[in-house]
Specification:
Blueprint (H helix, E strand, L loop, with lengths): L5 E4 L29 H14 L3 E4 L11 H10 L3 E6 L5 H9 L4 E5 L5 H7 L4 H15 L3 E7 L7 H11 L3 E6 L17 H15 L4 E5 L14 E2 L20 H15 L12 H4 L4 H6 L16 H4 L26
Parallel strand pairs: 1-2, 2-3, 3-4, 4-5, 5-6, 6-7, 7-8
Helix pairs in contact: 1-2, 6-7
Bound molecules: iron/sulfur cluster (SF4).
């Protein structure tokens, strides 16, 4: 495993045309008025990411990055300084905007495909959101533009997960991120308004992962490994490996010194994980990192169990740091990002 080299612009703009049920920033009322971050500030962030060794820039939030009044110039600048680029987007701002961004050197879009049709309308609290996003996805497919997708798992979509995943694969997404909903910011008080008991997610997750195996590379972010069958453990990336996840960003921590990044990663995990039973004595603790303590408490630790033995074929991986993580084709040199030829 290698440290993630993606720099995130986490404050591109606060403007957004959706109001997602699971949005981490939903309750930050005042900040929604603050609008765009000035282009010069974003350029400096790109410069400092490049200086520390990042080679890709992700336009993330807090709102919808393509609504920044100078989004073209941000992508133009990233291209000019030799950084690859991606934009996490709801896909609703119109095809001309996206075409222009690809023309300016955008590497790919990451579409927040939380549902199909009316399900997406409900999650985004916008009539027609699903239809509009599908129009973009079909266009991306027709034009052969590279894109990947993320799905935030939640009460409104988890029973349709397999349909969303199948559609994404049919349309040509090159990577799928399944994101379980974590209690960041004020969400620890409201987690159960959105999150699903992990025990109830297992069947849909395993069915979806089974479907994707061999068809597309994918990652399951934030899930207790012990709830899954052993052949699915390798797809899980929890807090302890997030700084090594090529499909996430570096949180300002990228360094060529792997030990330094590992220390930060463990520190990150320590702040959120369960302490004591069932995680501390678990054979998977150094891979799973331990499940999120707030999430675990909200659902009374249901289903969690200390893993005391692993199948023979995983024994070697389990004794190596990152051994399971490296088994996921999405994370390794051969099958992961470097294998996606058409990313610029
Ligand atoms: S017991 Fe804890 S460390 Fe072990 S797999 Fe379950 S959540 Fe992860």
């Amino acid at each position: 495993m290698n440290p993630c080299k993606v720099l995130a612009l986490q404050d591109v703009t606060w403007k957004c045309n959706w109001k997602c049920k699971h949005c981490y920033f939903r309750r930050f009322d005042k900040s929604w008025d603050s609008g765009d971050t000035p282009l010069e500030v974003l350029k400096k962030e790109i410069d400092s990411g490049k200086a520390r060794g990042c080679d890709e820039v992700a336009l993330c939030g807090k709102g919808e990055p393509t609504l920044h009044s100078q989004v073209n110039q941000i992508i133009e600048y990233a291209t000019k300084v030799g950084m690859k680029s991606l934009i996490i987007t709801n896909g609703s701002v119109g095809i001309e905007t996206y075409q222009k961004l690809y023309d300016l050197g955008l590497g790919y879009l990451q579409i927040s495909m939380h549902g199909l049709g009316k399900t997406l309308d409900k999650i985004a609290e916008r009539e027609g959101a699903g239809q509009r996003q599908m129009k973009l996805l079909e266009w991306l497919n027709k034009e052969n533009h590279p894109f990947r997708i993320n799905i935030t798992l939640q009460q409104l979509n988890y029973q349709e997960l397999i349909d969303i995943v199948e559609k994404a694969v049919q349309l040509g997404a090159f990577h799928v991120s399944l994101l379980n909903f974590l209690p960041h910011y004020q969400w620890n008080l409201y987690l159960k308004e959105v999150a699903v008991n992990p025990v109830e997610l297992v069947d849909m997750l395993e069915e979806s992962m089974e479907y994707m195996e061999g068809k597309v590379i994918f990652t399951l972010r934030y899930f207790p490994m012990c709830l899954l069958r052993p052949n699915f453990w390798k797809y899980v990336t929890n807090a302890q490996f997030v700084l090594f996840d090529p499909w996430e960003w570096d949180y300002g921590q990228y360094s060529k010194d792997i030990e330094k990044v590992w220390e930060s990663a463990v520190g990150l995990s320590e702040t959120v994980r369960i302490k004591g039973e069932p995680c501390d004595p678990c054979l998977l603790k150094d891979h799973c990192g331990g499940w999120n303590k707030v999430y675990a408490q909200a659902f009374n630790f249901e289903g969690l169990k200390t893993i005391k033995e692993v199948p023979n074929e995983l024994e070697e991986a389990v004794i190596q740091r990152g051994g399971l993580f490296d088994l996921n084709p999405a994370n390794n040199e051969k099958g992961g990002k470097n294998a996606i030829q058409h990313i610029r």
